[in-house]
Amino acid sequence: MARTRNRSGTAHEINTIQSVERAIKILEYLCRGPASLSELSRELGLHKSTAFGLLQTLIKHNYVHQEIKTGRYRLGYRVLALGGAFLEHCDLREIASPYLQQLVNEHGETVHLVVMDDGQVVYVDKIDSPQSIRMVSRIGRRLPAHCTGVGKAILAYLPEEKVQAIVKKRGLPRFTANTITTWEELSAELARIREEGVSYDREEIEEGLRCVAAPLIGYGQYPVGAISVSGPASRMTEEKMSRIAGSLKKVAGEISQQMGADVELNGYSKI
C-alpha cells in the first residue's frame, strides 16, 4: 500500500502490484552499475527464479541489457528515453500546485514557488494568505538571492563556484539591519541551511516580513527552485516558523522526488 496526492492536496491510499515494485527495485539497483543475478537476488531479497523472470521481461522491452562477456545486467537504452521524456515534459508549477495549496490550508500564510534566473529569484507561482494582512507579491517579480529565504535555499545547494560567481555579479547589498552583507556570513548561513534543510528570512529584505523556505531538487541533484511560506513578523513567531519548517521540508522532499531527485522526505541528506 502506498500514498498518493490528488490536485486538491488530499492524500489517499492506493494498492500496488508486487511484481511491478520488484521490477522497479531492480532498475533502481542497476542505477549503481552492472550487477549479477546472484547479487540482485541477494541484495533485493528476491528468489533467483523471480529475479530472473523479471530481468527477462525488462530485457525484452530494452529496459535492461545483459552483457555478453560477463553475464551481468545493466540498464538498457529505454531507460534513457524515459528520462529524456520526463525532462522534456516536466512542469514544476503543475507538480507543485497542490502542495502550495496544502501549505496555505495548513498555515494560513502566503506560499510562493520560485526559480533562479541570472542569479536572482523569480516568483513563478503563488497562493495568497486568506488573511487581510498578508505579504504583497506578484508572479514575475525578481529579488536578490542572498537576502530571501527562497534565494538562500537555492544557493545552499549550488556548487560553491556558482555561488561565488553570483555574488561577484550581484554583490551583497543591504536592505535592512538583518541583511547578510559579507561572504563569510553567507557561507556560514548556507552551511546551516544544508545541515537543516530549510532557510529562514528574518526581516532580511523587508522589515516586518518573515519567511521559511526549502529547496526543490531535481534530476542530477541540482536545485530547480524553492518554495516558501511568508507572512508578517507579528504572526510568524519562532514557534510558528518551526512548525512550518517541518511541513515545508516534507512537502519539498515530495516535490523533489517527483522532479527526479534522490532525496529523503524529511530532509536532504542524500544530496
TrEMBL record:
The keyword Nuclease does not apply. Gene3D superfamilies: 3.30.450.40, Winged helix-like DNA-binding domain superfamily/Winged helix DNA-binding domain. SMART domains: HTH_ICLR. Pfam families: HTH_IclR (PF09339), IclR_C (PF01614). Residues 78-261 form the IclR-ED domain. It comes from the Bacteria. Residues 17-77 form the HTH iclR-type domain. One of its GO terms (biological process) is negative regulation of DNA-templated transcription. The keyword Transcription applies. InterPro entries: GAF-like_dom_sf (IPR029016), HTH_MetabolicPath_Reg (IPR050707), Tscrpt_reg_IclR_C (IPR014757), Tscrpt_reg_IclR_N (IPR005471), WH-like_DNA-bd_sf (IPR036388), WH_DNA-bd_sf (IPR036390). PROSITE patterns: HTH_ICLR, ICLR_ED. GO terms for molecular function: DNA binding; DNA-binding transcription factor activity. Keywords: DNA-binding, Transcription, Transcription regulation. PANTHER family: HELIX-TURN-HELIX TRANSCRIPTIONAL REGULATOR, ICLR FAMILY, HTH-TYPE TRANSCRIPTIONAL REGULATOR RV1719. This is Glycerol operon regulatory protein.
